[in-house]
Specification:
557 residues, 12 helices, 3 domains, five-stranded antiparallel sheet
Length: 557
């Protein structure tokens, strides 16, 4: 039952309750945390470190005192004074576990500019010992998420009233759980010893971030969770061993001899009648995906819309009539190397399987090239269409990926670039490698220093160690340069000498992956020399790839 304005009786006496007048602030530890939720990892940032240095002594002090028990009358006396000076009354509800005090949300006075402040509702929940265990801010009728929590805090104590766990959540903020451990001296007094912080990622706790509360000044200085620039000697590199590599190819685009073939393929795509690897037709797959996203009614409406109308008419009117016009114009031109393109993109206006599909048609005198992608499946739709047509997509590159890490120190890498090149038979000198590493790490005056500068110079790739235009081979070192959990540019902590490069790996507290993802790699990228749709080009590329594979297999033997 919820009642306002009634003085409740005291809690059953279950311990030694404080007799003196108490305040709302005495019912829970006054915890003040840095705004940055990942602060235990980010002490390399001087501003973050300064905030943490100020907060940690306050945190230890707040945790060092237990929250003593209080009676119901004492709790009620607090709310009789109208804490937070609210316009609406406080209501309380009692159950077997304690008391909850609530006050509603309301609007403030409209100012001269016409702005009206909104004040959240507030919930306080206390356990049977009068300790606060839950605090909430609830949005009001005129807020975006009306009647829903905007902020929540949950507290857990041991039997003596020491805080052992604090969970916080905020709108568009992550769920953070801090757990606290204590040591007990000979007199039985508890002292904060350790804090462990985790963050919810897709419903699961992240890897823990720890803070040494007993020796926080030393912890701040040594920064054990953070990123450090270590020397070659500290990493104690081992002799290079290549035990694993992976070969893949990237294909893109379907080539047709003339627009009529293209139209046939696009009608087939729009109908979605060809099979997918799962055994369903492409359109049946789309039906299921839409129903999963929008419910059975949404799926039924999509299915009905997708199967209505004339697909050939849709394809002709929206795509191939434009292609045919440009094809005809190109045939009249004398220059053979000219080309034209037609782009198409559909959202909910796409008939049939064209729902949320984008495509590009590249038109030359010799043929028409098609690329396709869909919002729900990327370029898989292009691959499935090519398979259904019995055609191969154009070979854009083949890649041999070689993971390399010559240090056993956790969280760091070491790569002897010259040694890897020697095993691969790459004709580079020590000076070539030294110059490359200076460029790679931004040591040269003209080297790109910032991420956007590197992208401007190299595009999405890293710079190449060595290139051979005759075979289309590029040899590339790839390392993870950014740690999003630590909010740090890792390459600021990299080191190198004339032959090798080393540095920290991403922490992966929130973004966990298998260990191979962040391991540095040497990539041998072979871009086909010739027509990507010509089988002879594929065969020449295969010869180049097999040459390097043979060298790697000999090295691993």
């Amino acid at each position: 039952m919820t009642t306002s304005g009634v003085n409740p009786e005291g809690f059953p006496q279950g311990g030694e309750f404080v007799d003196e007048a108490i305040t709302l602030q005495s019912r829970f530890p006054q915890i003040n945390m840095p705004r940055d939720t990942m602060w235990p990892l980010r002490l390399h940032d001087e501003a973050t470190k300064a905030v943490v240095a100020e907060v940690l002594p306050e945190l230890v002090t707040a945790l060092s005192e237990p929250i003593k028990p209080a009676t119901k009358n004492q709790i009620h006396d607090i709310f009789a004074t109208n804490p937070h000076k609210r316009r609406l009354p406080w209501h309380y509800k009692e159950d077997g576990e304690g008391l909850t005090y609530t006050t509603g949300a309301y609007e403030g006075q409209t100012d001269a500019k016409g702005s009206t402040p909104l004040y959240d509702g507030i919930n306080y929940q206390f356990d049977a010992n009068g300790r606060m265990v839950k605090f909430e801010l609830i949005e009001g009728e005129h807020s975006y998420n009306r009647h829903r929590p905007r902020y929540q805090e949950f507290l857990t104590y041991d039997n003596e009233g020491y805080l052992t766990e604090r969970l916080t959540w905020g709108y568009i903020e992550p769920t953070i759980t801090d757990r606290f451990e204590y040591t007990v001296d000979e007199a039985g007094r508890k002292t904060p010893a350790k804090m462990t912080r985790t963050q919810k990622v897709q419903g699961e706790d992240s890897e823990p971030m720890t803070v040494d509360l007993a020796n926080y000044e030393e912890w701040l200085m040594t920064n054990p969770n953070g990123i450090s620039a270590l020397t070659r000697e500290q990493l104690d590199p081992k002799e290079l061993e290549i035990t694993d590599f992976n070969v893949s190819e990237y294909r893109k685009g379907i080539l047709f001899a003339h627009p009529e073939q293209l139209e046939h393929a696009l009608v087939m795509y729009g109908d979605g009648s060809y099979p997918t690897p799962g055994g369903e037709t492409a359109l049946e797959y789309n039906d299921k995906a839409f129903a999963d996203a929008h419910g059975s009614l949404g799926g039924a409406l999509f299915s009905l819309a997708a199967r209505s109308g004339d697909m050939r008419e849709f394809v002709s009117n929206r795509i191939t009539s434009k292609v045919q016009d440009k094809w005809n114009q190109l045939q009249k031109k004398r220059a053979k190397a000219t080309s034209e393109s037609v782009h198409f993109g559909f959202d909910y206006d796409g008939a049939g399987h064209f729902h949320k599909t984008n495509g590009e048609v590249e038109i030359t005198k010799d043929g028409v090239g098609l690329t396709l992608s869909a919002a729900y499946a990327g370029d898989q739709v292009e691959d499935q269409l090519a398979s259904a047509l019995g055609m191969k997509r154009g070979l854009r590159n083949a890649t041999i990926e070689i993971p390399v890490n010559q240090t056993e120190r956790d969280g760091y890498f070491f790569v002897d670039v010259k040694a890897v090149c020697d095993k691969l038979g790459i004709p580079v000198s020590e000076q070539d490698v030294a110059d490359y590493l200076e460029d790679y790490l931004g040591d040269k005056d003209d080297a790109p220093k910032a991420k956007y500068q590197r992208y401007s110079k190299y595009g999405s790739r890293q710079p190449a160690i060595w290139q051979d235009e005759a075979t289309g081979v590029s040899v590339i070192l790839e390392t993870e340069r950014r740690d999003y959990d630590s909010s740090a540019d890792l390459d600021n902590f990299f080191g190198h000498d004339g032959t090798s490069v080393w540095g920290p790996l991403p922490k992966e507290v929130r973004r966990t992956s298998d260990s191979k993802k962040n391991t540095p790699k040497i990539r041998i990228v072979v871009e086909p020399v010739g027509d990507p749709f010509d089988e002879a080009t594929t065969q020449r590329t295969d010869v180049v790839v097999r040459t390097y594979m043979s060298r790697l297999e000999q090295s691993a033997a």
